[in-house]
Amino acid sequence: RGIEFEEVRPYQVGDDVRTIDWNVTARSDQPYVKLFREERELSVMLLVSVTGIVFGPVLGPLYAMTGCLASASAAFAIGRWIGPRHVNGWGGERMRRLIGLLRRNGTLAVFLIRKIPLPFVLVNVMLGASAVGYREFLIGTALGMAAMVVGLAGFGYQLAETWRSPSAESVMRALLFLCIPLSLAWMINRR
Q1: Is the pLDDT confidence value at 134 over 70?
Q2: What predicted TM-score, i.e. pTM, was given to this entire model?
Q3: How would you label 61-96 residue by residue, b for 16+ Cβ within 10 Å and e otherwise?
Q4: Which of 74, 95, 174, 187 is deepest in the core (most CB within 10 A)?
């Protein structure tokens, strides 16, 4: 069973009865079940941490950022191919305001969007379909993700070091690598 709620659908023979949505079922004439999907952000965070374990504290973040930017660029290209005509209808007035903001403040807007917990691929496709230039997209994405990528890769490296030679100091370093970027992201998101 996945982590994130995805949708509700009618019960089918063989469905796990523990997934029945009793609220929806009570309002209808048939049972409904909740469907969940795997949380992809968690998988990406784990992968970034593993780059720190495998490649170390310098190359790990570099490779992780390269992978994040390559993935973001592919989705951005899909957005460019789709074009703004098809995407503008997705969000109505909010989308039109966002596109105006992106047109005026490309790099800053992309940086700030990276601080909001939104689906990575969807954001990249929408940015590709917007007026943001590719250079502004890359710079904003790199700046917006740098703290988290460095923090997670550093955490992975420190975790491996703690495993190799456990000590209170190595545990503290691993926790600091994780807590500092998370705290910064939390403080930015609060404003």
Answers
A1: yes
A2: 0.64
A3: bebbbeebbeebbebbeebeeeebeebeeeeeeebe
A4: 174
